[in-house]
Write a structure and sequence with these properties.
The structure is a homodimer. By secondary structure, chain A is α/β, with parallel strands linked by helices. The first copy, chain A, has helices spanning about 45-50, 75-85, 100-110, 115-130, 145-155, 175-190, 200-205; strands at about 1-15, 15-30, 35, 60-65, 65-70, 85-90, 160-165, 195, 210-215, 215-220. The structure holds adenosine-5'-triphosphate (ATP) (2 copies) and magnesium ion (MG) (2 copies).
């Protein structure tokens, strides 16, 4: 479902170039569960943003479901992002003026869901992540881990084919973390492709495939047989 | 150095009350190294904000260095925050328009440091956290873990007596995390009081005292003899 060939991402900063991704190539199949690990600054979030169609590479090829993403126009990209991809951001990216429920509903609003249905779905997801009683509150009134959980609920709202999670448990205690990881495993068992950026070994272990990065390059790829 | 008695913090939300801190009492001595753990939403950040004089309790007593903090006026509080307390925020709170160096210099600016001295100190700290080559860049151009490291450098800039860290390694890989933890230990060995909120056992283990929270209350206090 994901085909990456010689992907590159540079940022021109005055007269220096920051090479976030040097030359990345790999293939991921539908329904696989991948973890991406690597040192701070090695390019994990950059790669995830490209996979999530939130950004375009400087060079290289990205095929999603067989279609060259760089050939798509803004509307097609937008449709893919809203309907098929769920994204949990490293810094949550919640909308401060909206309540917990409204934040979770955002993807459903874009897909034209009936307001009553989307409200019900959002309430159900809020309870699933343990925030049912905070549904009417705003991000600024929540703890770090609570905000992270709203971001997680939002990413699951549109029942996406691919779930991209950038360090989804960094602000959670181990019990809550275990609940979130169980949710991700459940989604994967339903056939969804799950890609998690993490630097915690216990999170990487629930994936069956692992990509290690270093300085914008792939350091290693491990699959189920490599135990 | 820190004396807390029956501290409470409530938020009135329409007609519900969120009791972030119910009734907290404890004492911390100068030069001790404390970790604070507990489930997401249990009140850790709220407590740390009160300790850091960033907020006032709804009720209860907080004595810092023998002085009742609730008796202090804004100028005195401001002076304490700038000169004696270093704070690493859970969401970094970097100033987006300032560069890495300028962000680190902020506390020194408030203390009236000579601009050349403060620039040198900031550069030294940037290198210490591995960001010497990103000194002129802005937070938006940095990875999550890099932003966290800028926040850490800023907290150490004014050589504070008390360092308060809210989940300072949540976005860092294990190697970088080990470097940051070594820095905290080093500061503690120099006599500084260090208080770290974390939900990682390996971070809690470098402290010699541990406070466990649950639902706005203290669940347990462990010291060196409790192994
Ligand atoms: N400004 C606010 N208004 C209303 N409720 C708040 C506010 N700030 C915090 N709370 C609530 O107080 C409780 C404690 O929050 P706090 O941020 O201290 O938790 P925490 O232990 O740091 O959690 P985490 O591990 O998720 O960061 C939570 O239920 C939170 O939603
Ligand atoms: N907008 C930008 N402009 C310039 N450089 C950038 C930008 N975004 C990212 N970078 C740089 O690209 C490199 C990779 O960043 P990325 O955010 O992908 O790292 P990461 O692996 O997610 O790190 P972390 O674990 O700290 O979150 C870093 O050196 C970062 O500073
Ligand atoms: Mg990142
Ligand atoms: Mg917190």
């Amino acid at each position: 479902i994901v085909q990456i060939e010689h992907l590159q991402k540079h940022y021109q900063m005055g007269d220096t170039i920051v090479r976030a991704l040097e030359d990345i190539s790999f293939t991921m199949l539908t329904g696989e569960f991948w973890s991406i690990m690597g040192p701070s600054g090695s390019g994990k979030s950059t790669l995830l943003n490209l996979l999530g169609c939130l950004d375009q590479p400087t060079d290289g090829l990205y095929r999603l479901g067989g279609i060259d993403v760089s050939e798509m126009d803004d509307d097609e990209l937008s449709e893919i992002r809203n309907e098929r991809i769920g994204f949990i951001f490293q810094s949550f990216n919640l909308i401060q003026q909206l309540t917990v429920l409204e934040n979770i509903e955002v993807p459903l609003f874009y897909m034209g869901w009936d307001p009553t249905d989307s409200r019900d779905r959002a309430q159900e997801l809020a309870e699933k992540v343990g925030l049912g009683d905070r549904a009417g509150h705003r991000p600024r009134e929540l703890s770090g881990g609570q905000q992270q959980r709203v971001a997680i609920a939002r990413a699951m709202a549109n029942d996406p084919l691919i779930l991209l999670a950038d360090e989804p448990t960094g602000n959670l205690d181990s019990k809550t973390e275990a609940e979130i990881l169980a949710m991700l495993q459940e989604l994967n068992e339903q056939g969804k492709t799950v890609i998690v950026v993490t630097h915690e070994l216990k999170v990487a272990e629930i994936a069956n495939w692992n990509l290690s990065m270093r300085d914008g390059l792939i350091d290693a790829v491990r699959g189920p047989e490599d135990s």
